[in-house]
Write a structure and sequence with these properties.
5 strands
């Protein structure tokens, strides 16, 4: 995901909101969402978020950022939000994120339980352990 994707992701999320909402209601909904503009801009600049695009159409994305020295772990990847239309895309985004974290030698992938896709994550990636947030060890040494 790059900064150039921010507007397209925002518009994609707006298009997923119920049609019965008015324009201002949709805008107000965006203000309290993890995909609000300033959040997308933040994550788009970090290089730890991914977007799934097929034939120039967004199919999903994941927002993440590294955390240093969190909960006794030296380096972790915080996944704040995951959005997709079909499970296959969700699986690809999660798999890419976990592989990226392992490639970069991060110790944990942490997933925001407040995300509406957290049930999907627990169901499809049962390696995630539950707590205040979902977490997955990316090293064999740290199986906590």
């Amino acid at each position: 995901m790059l900064p150039v994707h921010v507007d397209a992701i925002f518009e994609w999320e707006i298009s997923l909101l119920p049609e019965e909402l008015s324009g201002i209601q949709k805008e107000m909904k965006s203000w309290e969402s993890p995909w609000r503009k300033e959040s997308l801009e933040h994550y788009g600049n970090l290089g730890w978020s991914f977007i799934a695009i097929n034939e120039e159409k967004i199919e999903g994305y994941i927002l993440g950022q590294p955390l240093l020295f969190f909960n006794k772990w030296t380096q972790s990847l915080w996944v704040d939000h995951l959005s997709f239309k079909n499970d296959h895309v969700g699986l690809e985004l999660l798999d890419t994120t976990i592989r990226w974290a392992k490639t970069k030698h991060l110790q944990k992938v942490l997933f925001n339980k407040a995300c509406d896709k957290s049930d999907f994550v627990q169901r499809e990636f049962n390696q995630f352990k539950s707590g205040d947030f979902l977490h997955l060890s990316t090293t064999k040494l740290n199986e906590e």
